[in-house]
Amino acid sequence: MVQTAVEIARAVRAGELDPVQVTREALARIAAADGVVGAFRRVRATEALAEAAEVAARPDLRDLPLAGVPVAVKDVTEVTGEYAGWGSVAGPQTPFSSDGVIAARLRAAGAVIVGLTRVPELCLYPMSDDPTGVSRNPWEPAYTAGGSSGGSAAAVAAGLVPIAHGTDGLGSVRLPAAMCGLVGLKPGRGVVQEPTEGWYGMSTHGPLATTTADAALLMSVLGERPALAEVPVPGPQRIAFSTQVPVTRAPLPRPLGQAVTQASTLLAGCGHSLTEATPTYGFDTMLALVARWFAGPAAQADAEFTFRHLQPRTRTHVRLGHLTRAFVRDRARTTWISRAEEFFTSHDVLITPTLATLPPKAQRWHRRSWLANALPAVRVADFTGFWNLAGFPALSVPVGHHPTLDLTTSVQLVAPPGGEPLLLGLAAQLEAANPWPRSR
Question: Organism's domain of life (predicted)?
């Protein structure tokens, strides 16, 4: 069993573990398993060992929160000497001369970046594959590891690294976390400060981990908020639960609804009050989400990618984005935020399923049509995207197991802005009451 990030960092700070040896072992695991899992677009073997040696020699080693911890980074951020692929051959492939904010924060904390993880082109879909490979669920390789942070989730769930970085624009941290049995946190808007916001402010950075404590630790580094590493013990909370699929009220697979029941029962046993209640999502909110899902990537493609080299499904998506850009307005977002705030005057936390359908199968989705990709993408993410539009923090945590498939079932916890510590505290209570297997 791979040690947690908390355990590795503690042992490195105490001089009990050598960062170079820790990194060498992580690289060995990647070499042995990634041919099946397909987590990485690029493994930084030579560079990672050199970086680990630098960490070991740092004079501030005893103060580093991620001292010597191997970390996988989603292939969308600036890393010195690498290019951000975004799952595409259509973008620039000139290596960056300096780190972006995420890599810089990880390195400052003592982490070792062992590789860049696979994503779907422009991070559009909850299935991560590209022309070089497919990211598979380590528990059930016939199923996708999710997306768009699917490679990061596969790397953690397979035990290749203890923690990984992801981004979440419509559920891209929480969906793969749910599919792979991990803790995945989308922080509220503005918690991770960066020069520009993706997808009209809907996308943000977040952690993927096998334990709540590891997710909290990585979140504290990504957001430069050390206090987030301390997971609180929450007092009694007013928790709403709902299994109603937003807007469409589509049928929900029974195991996904049962996960909400199980989580509610566990949290009631921790002293919280539970009430069935559903926010007023609204059709206008769904339209605002869809408009941004089209227009955000279209704006990025126009600025950074060669259109004719994009995959056929992506070219269709970008064309639709050009048509919907005029419909991206703040009014629908403001209206939805007001309704969400009203809901949380009566409730402290909302529990829903994370997934609205079972995970899609693992295959070369980039070879299929836009419609073949869009339909399963929209359906599986029914519960997650609304909270990106609102900018509220949301977390996915595993609680159960599918009765016939080797897949976990998870729930999404949502809180008002500033609720990241509360969500982590509740996740820790669920973990203590109902421990889950950490990796495949």
Answer: Bacteria
Contact call for residues 126 and 175 (beta carbons, < 8 A): yes
Cα atoms found within 13 Å of the Cα of residue 158, Cβ hemisphere only? 30
Domain of residue 93, residue span: 5-229
CA angle 381, 145, 310 (to 5 degrees): 75
Single-letter code of the amino acid located at 410: S
| Predicted pLDDT of residue 197 | 85
**Co-location of 245 and 217 in the same domain:** no
Residues with a catalytic annotation lie at 74, 148, 172
Compute the distance between CA of residue 223 and CA of residue 362 in angstroms, rounded to an integer.
Answer: 32
Domain of residue 419, CATH code: 3.90.1300.10
pTM of the model: 0.98
Q: What is the per-residue pLDDT for 1? A: 67
CA distance 138 to 419: 31
Q: Which two tokens stand for residue 322?
A: 């050009």
What is the pLDDT, as a whole number, of residue 48?
98
Q: How is 229-261 classified by DSSP, letter by letter?
A: GS-------EEEE--PPTTT-----HHHHHHHH
Residues 107 and 77: beta-carbon distance below 8 Å: no
Residues of the chain with pLDDT under 50: none
Of 38, 241, 16, 199, nearest to 127 (Cα)? 38
What letter does residue 161 receive in the DSSP assignment? S
User: Does some domain include residue 417?
Assistant: yes
**Would you call the peptide bond into 148 cis, given omega within 30 degrees of 0 as the criterion?**
yes
